[in-house]
Amino acid sequence: MTLTTWNAINTPFSRRTLLGGAIASAALGLTACSGGGNSTATASELSTVKIMAPFLSTQAPTADSAVQKKLESLMGKKIDITWVPNSSYADKTNIVLAGSDLPHIMVVQTKSPSFVKSAESGAFWELTDKLKDYPNLNTNQPDIQLNSSVNGKVYGVFRSRAPMRTAVMFRKDWLDKLGLKVPTTTQELYEVAKAFTEGDPNGDGKGDTTGIVIPKWGGLGTNSPYDVMEEWYGAGNRWTERDGKLIPSFETSEFLDANRFIKKMVDEKLINADFATYDSTKWNDAFINGKAGIIIDVDSRISQLIGLFKAADASTYQNKVAYTGNLKGPDGKLHAHPSDGYAGFLSIPKSTVRTEADLKKVLDVLNTMNDKDVAVLINNGIEDVNFKLVDGRAATITPPTPESKAVSADIASYSQLGTNVNGNHFYDVKQASDYEQKVYDDRVKLMADDLKSAVYNPAAPYISDTYVAKGVQLDNIVADARIKYLAGQLDENGLKDAIKQWDTAGGSKVKDEINKLWQENKK
Predict the structure, then answer these.
(1) Which helix H or strand E contains 435, and what residues bound it?
(2) Which candidate among 146, 157, 220, 288 keeps its CA 20 to 30 Å from the CA of 282?
């Protein structure tokens, strides 16, 4: 998964909205047009399935690609996919929803306020009680499905992702040189960051190193390093329960404690000074180039960093990266930071799929798309073309051929169509060396152990009407104040004032509505 993708997902209250305001206005038009568009066949004549999805490679897969041909063969249908660049997917979504030529299935990347308006006004089929009839769509993760819902109602088949992914990466050679161990607590993280900044770990005598590198990442509840450290401190995961009510995490004392901790590291230059503007596409650079020694991100970055070191020097790469999972906070407890466990969902527009009979056929398609042979195709590729099975894992065929390169590039996009709501039906990837396989296996175990201490967002399923109307503006109040506080442009009273402003500008009503929904849906 790319960094951009990881930043944008799994948070119904994120200000990263991929579906713009045009969706809301389009929704009424979609439900009002009982005749719908005239450019697609109804599902009762579903020889061709139209899908809209983002592509994550440099070029979109072609209609005559090897993956496309095999997909259509396995599905027994023509699969007509409109591939849209991930960077412009929001704009394309708005245009499509405002018109009459909608697909049968569309990827919805986030549960934005605008999508909520569309869904609740009837633009998409509600699937709450329908998915249980389809073996590959009937989830064994009901809590994650609830997270993906809109106030308890399911408007799409969620795309399952590992709920625990938080990790901290360190320059292992720097730890070894300075005689340090991998931290287990936030205090130890501070001590290592200080040593990495002041102890000349790269040995050039210039005092040009920084402990932690953080890129530009301003939103609330976007799984940022700030969110992670706030959770480690016990502030909760975007929302938290206090005295029988849900409140935003930023209204807790632990939120302030965590940001005092982060600001202390900023002030002592243990975090890169340009954290508010540093380009996220260059996040690895300082770590690889020996200018910074710590990254707080998802665990897959561990293998990414190892791969970059391996490409630079295959004889020393095994000594460059150390890692751990979540860290214990000042209270001595592990408050592990999970995502909401999904990366958007596959939704079905009512203007194209008009009847219950049509809907069943489209759900049949989605069910088949998650059969093992299709899951292997869109996640692993084509056996004996770009991978072969070794010890039950998919091993990349080397040296690569033009055909294998094409298949591997395409599955980065086709994998966006999988849901995996009752487990992965495809193969784990076999790593390139014994060392890399051990790192991968250790990562999986580490995340599984941390999952036992996960602190989820209790408000994840719920969207208040006030938040739908004012969510972006409200989030900006606190998110911008947090960055300004860390940068020294606001004092702590200024940060507290921003939190009060959030409350008076509509946040108090959001809390009332969230708590009402929470109470109504309690089991």
Answers:
(1) helix 434-451
(2) 220
| Strand partners for 246 | 241
Q: Which tokens sit at 166?
A: 């938080």
Taking phi over 0 as left and psi of -120 to 50 as alpha, with beta for the rest, 423 belongs to: left
Over the stretch 350-364, which tens digit does the pLDDT of each residue have?
999 999 999 999 999
DSSP 135-197: TTTS-S-HHHHHHHSBTTB--SEEEE--SB-EEEEEEHHHHHHHT----SBHHHHHHHHHHHH
438 C-beta neighbours (distance < 10 Å), count: 12
For residue 310, what are the CA distances in angstroms to 207, 304, 437? 26, 10, 14
**Contact of 322 with 301, CB cutoff 8 Å:** no
pTM: 0.85
* End-to-end C-alpha distance for the chain, whole angstroms: 34
Convert 50-62 into a string of H (helix), E (strand) and C (coil): EEEEEECCCCCCC
Indicate the pairing of strand 292-298 with strand 210-212: parallel
At 518, which helix (H) or strand (E)?
Answer: helix 508-520
Cα–Cα dist 286/403, whole Å: 35
- Cis peptide upstream of residue 399 (ω within 30 degrees of 0): yes
Structure tokens that stand for 189 in this block:
């993280």
Total residues found in the chain within this entry = 523
Phi-psi region of 247 (alpha: psi -120 to 50; beta: other; left: phi over 0): beta
Four-residue CA torsion sign, 135, 136, 140, 144: negative
**Token pair of 485 as six digits:** 């506080």
pLDDT band at 91 (very low <50, low <70, confident <90, very high): confident
Residue 282 burial (CB count, 10 A): 11
- 360 neighbors 104 (Cβ within 8 angstroms): no
State the DSSP H helix or E strand holding residue 49, giving kind and residue range, or none if neither.
strand 48-55
Q: Residue 33 has what pLDDT? A: 38
For all residues of the chain together, what is the average pLDDT? 90
**Paired residues of 170 in beta bridges:** 294, 322
Report the C-alpha gap between 189 and 207 in whole angstroms: 20
Domains of the chain: 3-163+344-371 (3.40.190.10), 166-337+456-461 (3.40.190.10)
The residue type of 94 is N
pLDDT band at 38 (very low <50, low <70, confident <90, very high): very low
Q: Are 115 and 86 in contact (CB under 8 A)?
A: no
* pLDDT value of residue 57: 83
Cβ atoms of residues 234 and 335 within 8 Å: yes
Give the number of C-alpha atoms closer than 13 A to the C-alpha of residue 183, restricted to the C-beta side: 26
| Tokens found for residue 460 | 């994840």
Task: Give the pLDDT confidence score for residue 402 in this predicted structure.
Answer: 97
Residue type, 130: K
pLDDT tens column, 500-513: 999 999 999 999 99
Average pLDDT over residues 388-413: 96
